[in-house]
Design brief:
single chain, 483 residues, mainly alpha, 77% helix, 0% strand, globular
């Protein structure tokens, strides 16, 4: 076990636990549900930007994405920059209107918004089930990424790394709730930014500069420096699909959209858009460029998912590598905590309060206990599922993300901007979108070479518009509420 690497990582884990304890002791007085699940809508611009970037930047981005760049080359770096406008799109499309309406209807979860807009139990239940299943899948990916990081960097076994990582995340999320999540996300975003810069600088120094690294990549495989990439994977249909999946479709991710509930005012929103876009651009470019150039430094990696921690140990002094290994750790933890808290909110707020406790008995005692218990149970289930990890975790992550987008994108966006949208249209869109996505993904069908998300979103949009126009419009009260 490398103590020089372990000590900085251990200090970092203690630090995020400290933030969780601090958040639990400084909760604003009032409604537990409002505080635990959305932090009483008190985020400033910097925290909003960092929590949105950190939530989106996951094991897939910091480990799987650079792993793909290592395998495919600089073409993947170019493709990854498609993700640059994600913060601007999410906050620009949903941000202001989402926050105003959420305050009007006292919404705490995404499904609260769907209920207020569509008045349909079927929409809420389908949305809840999708969130829980997809989040379990994506959290498994994050747990695998954290465990592999500790395994590669410290000499711990995969199982030991998994238990250490999962225990820390579960503890601070359960203790601190949403406030702990966004505060640790802000800290983790800063660490990711610094760590990415340090790694890229170390690679350039170790490789005697960018021109020499490019030359070495050409000698390994000339396609590593071509736009099409090694293996000619980056075709036009694939790039179009990727644009939809990791850029436009991100607006439909519930854990990103939920951030639009929690900021303080318009000033915080505008500052969050600016800071978030800049930070996202720097992270995406730095992470993926490091992965691609890493092929010249470590050409014989058997598992691309291990390239980031391996590079850090190769090009940085041990103690400094230990400090900056906290960057991918931060990326992973920041996604898990967000999804864990929202999955718990879905179970407690959307399903239990609305359908399993109609008399609303003893809520002041029962809801806090249930919220903490649900968070613990979900985290434990994900931990157990992560004990048998697959390779190339980026694909499992993208599969779950696509399912969320197929269900939520059109109900969220059209619900805000199309007065004629109604519950039957939303339900038709959700059902058609997820069925199409599952069928195409399961059997590997690629219509015109496109990823399953493109025809799924197209069919979902068509079903939404047609069914809404053929059925009764929403009530006047709903239309006025969402004006």
């Amino acid at each position: 076990m490398n103590l020089e690497l372990m000590l900085p990582l251990f200090i970092y884990l203690v630090l995020v636990l400290g933030v969780g304890f601090w958040a639990s002791r400084h909760r604003a007085a009032g409604n537990f549900v409002q505080e635990y699940f959305i932090g009483n809508r008190s985020m400033g611009g910097l925290v909003l930007a960092m929590t949105l970037v950190a939530t989106y930047t996951s094991a897939s981005s910091f480990i799987g994405g650079p792993g793909a760049a290592y395998k495919i080359g600089l073409g993947w770096v170019l493709l990854a920059m498609i993700q640059l406008p994600t913060v601007w799109l999410t906050l620009g499309v949903l941000g202001k209107k989402f926050a105003i309406i959420a305050r009007r209807v006292n919404a705490v979860t995404i499904n609260d918004m769907l209920w207020a807009r569509y008045q349909s139990r079927a929409v809420v239940i389908l949305g809840s089930v999708t969130i829980i299943l997809a989040f379990i899948a994506t959290m498994v990916v994050q747990f695998i990424g954290g465990a592999r990081l500790l395994e590669t960097a410290t000499g711990l076994s995969y199982q030991q790394g998994l238990l250490l990582f999962a225990g820390c995340v579960l503890l601070y999320t359960i203790i601190g709730g949403f406030r702990a999540v966004v505060m640790t996300d802000a800290l983790q975003g800063i660490i990711m930014l610094i760590g990415t810069g340090a790694l890229l600088a170390g690679i350039l120094i170790a490789g005697d500069g960018l021109p020499n690294l490019i030359h070495q990549l050409k000698e390994i495989d000339p396609k590593l420096v071509s736009p099409q990439g090694a293996g000619d994977m980056l075709t036009q249909p694939f790039m179009l699909s990727f644009w939809i999946l990791v850029c436009i479709g991100v607006v439909g991710l519930p854990h990103s959209a939920l951030r639009c509930f929690g900021y303080r005012d318009s000033k915080a929103l505008h500052r969050g858009i600016l800071i978030g876009t800049i930070v996202s651009a720097l992270l995406m470019f730095g992470m993926h460029l490091a992965g691609a150039l890493g092929r010249a430094i470590l050409p014989g990696m058997d598992s691309p998912d291990k390239i980031m921690p391996s590079l850090m140990m190769e090009v940085l002094p041990p103690w400094l590598a230990g400090v900056f290994l906290a960057a991918p750790m931060a990326a992973i933890m920041s996604t898990i905590d967000s999804q864990l808290i929202q999955a718990s909110a879905t179970l407690v707020k959307d399903l239990y309060l609305n359908y399993l406790n109609p008399k609303q008995e003893k809520l002041e005692v029962r809801i806090p206990r249930l919220s903490l218990l649900c968070t613990l149970i979900l985290g434990t289930l994900v931990l157990l599922a992560a004990l048998q990890p697959p390779e190339m975790i980026i694909w499992l992550n993208l599969l779950a993300f696509g399912g969320l987008q197929a269900v939520f994108l059109w109900p969220l966006v059209l619900g805000l901007y199309w007065p004629r949208a109604n519950g039957r249209g939303a339900l038709a869109s959700m059902v058609c979108g997820i069925l199409c996505y599952c069928i195409l993904s399961q059997w590997g069908i690629k219509l015109a070479g496109l990823h399953a998300i493109v025809p799924s979103l197209t069919l979902g949009l068509f079903a939404f518009v047609v069914v809404s126009l053929l059925s009764a419009p929403p009530s006047r009260e709903v239309r006025e509420l969402f004006e």
